[in-house]
Design goal:
The complex is a heterodimer. Chain A is built from no helices and 11 strands. Chain A is 0% helix and 54% strand. In chain A, strands 2, 4, 5, 9, 10 and 11 form a 6-stranded mixed beta sheet that branches. The chains are: A mainly beta, B mainly beta. Chains A and B meet through strand 5 and strand 10 of A and strand 4, strand 5, strand 9 and strand 10 of B.
Chain lengths: 112, 114
């Protein structure tokens, strides 16, 4: 079992819909959780981080964390074609943003 | 700021040759990370420096890999000798410090070993 698991996709949603991306992790002691977006041929860029159980909203993005279930998700509201990318879930044992274990990513396609 | 700068962007080398990848972190950032990304294994942390000191190199795959950070503005990742299975995109990332909530990635070096 991988330490961080994501559905590889591809996940396809129509423009304007909500895209839901999911991630589970195996280390119950994990402290911080990150979502990165990676366009094809480009480097990962941070979208959101979350440390506490519950929801965290930033614009069209909402991260959800449930430590009891070892589950973290990313919701993208009003999806746009420009959101089409691979979304990487990253999990840390502490609050060090760069020292992450990454999932393999979920490829999202938003169709106009 | 220009962000994290990596060079070269692309490298093609023959098996057995030495390869050196270079990274300039964002000025003022004290933590630096080297990652490798492949289709098979995804994005993997190779080594992490804090204040120029290697803190965790448990991700370095073999003794053929070595990394240095001689000063706060420069790091290298060396592979000697290189093998075809080393072909990957190598990313360097930096963050303000060891408790920073964001790490910034460079554009990566695409390494092909033939």
């Amino acid at each position: 079992q991988k330490e961080v698991e994501q559905n590889s996709g591809p996940l396809s949603v129509p423009e304007g819909a909500i895209a839901s991306l999911n991630c589970t992790y195996s280390d119950r002691g994990s402290q911080s959780f990150f979502w990165y977006r990676q366009y094809s041929g480009k480097s990962p860029e941070l979208i959101m981080f979350i440390y506490s159980n519950g929801d965290k909203e930033d614009g069209r993005f909402t991260a959800q964390l449930n430590k009891a279930s070892q589950y973290v998700s990313l919701l993208i509201r009003d999806s746009q074609p420009s959101d089409s990318a691979t979304y990487l879930c990253a999990v840390n044992q502490d609050t060090n943003a760069g020292k992450s274990t990454f999932g393999d990513g979920t490829t999202l396609t938003v169709k106009p | 700021d220009a962000g994290v700068i990596q060079s070269p962007r692309h490298e093609v080398t023959e098996m057995g040759q030495e390869v050196t990848l270079r990274c300039k972190p964002i000025s003022g950032h004290n933590s630096l990370f080297w990652y490798r990304q492949t289709m098979m294994r995804g994005l993997e942390l190779l080594i992490y420096f804090n204040n120029n000191v290697p803190i965790d190199d448990s991700g370095m795959p073999e003794d053929r890999f070595s990394a240095k950070m001689p000063n706060a503005s420069f790091s290298t990742l060396k592979i000697q000798p290189s093998e075809p299975r080393d072909s990957a995109v190598y990313f360097c990332a930096s963050s303000l410090d060891s408790s920073a909530t964001e790490a910034f990635f460079g554009q990566g070096t695409r390494l092909t070993v033939v």
